[in-house]
Write a structure and sequence with these properties.
There is one protein chain. This protein has 118 residues and is α+β, with helices and mostly antiparallel strands. The chain has one domain. It has three helices and six strands; from the N terminus they run ββββββααα. Strand 5 and strand 6 form a beta hairpin. The N and C termini lie far apart (73 Å).
């Protein structure tokens, strides 16, 4: 462990909750998140708290994994990386649809005669 990295772990049953500070500001723990060390990997989770009326205290709720923490920074889950790459895809198609509509004008007219209200 070098000088730019500080680690504090609390071991639990099958995993350990760790607070890892890596020199780069982009990999620091953000508010509403939790870092867990499972095996040799560190994961960043989104967490929230809800008031438990029976026990009269806050209850932590782990919502989802935000990514894997490496020395290079935060790596998002594969599914989110794929979804981000697919957001930029634009399908532009006009010719085939226009051709089919033009070729079927006679069928459309017959349907209008049979079903005048639609």
């Amino acid at each position: 462990m070098d000088e730019s990295e500080r680690k504090f772990c609390i071991p639990l049953r099958n995993y350990a909750i760790c607070h890892i500070r890596i020199g780069s500001s982009s990999t620091r723990k953000r508010k509403g998140t939790e870092i867990r060390k499972i095996g040799n990997n560190s994961y960043l989770y989104k967490v929230a708290s809800v008031r438990d009326k029976e026990k009269k205290r806050a209850k932590k709720i782990t919502e989802k994994v935000l990514g894997t923490i490496t020395r290079d920074g935060l790596i998002e889950p594969r599914q989110e990386r794929v979804m981000k790459s697919q957001n930029n895809i634009a399908v532009k198609e006009f010719g085939a649809t226009n051709f089919l509509l033009d070729m079927n004008d006679d069928i459309k007219e017959r349907f209008k005669e049979i079903y005048p209200d639609k």
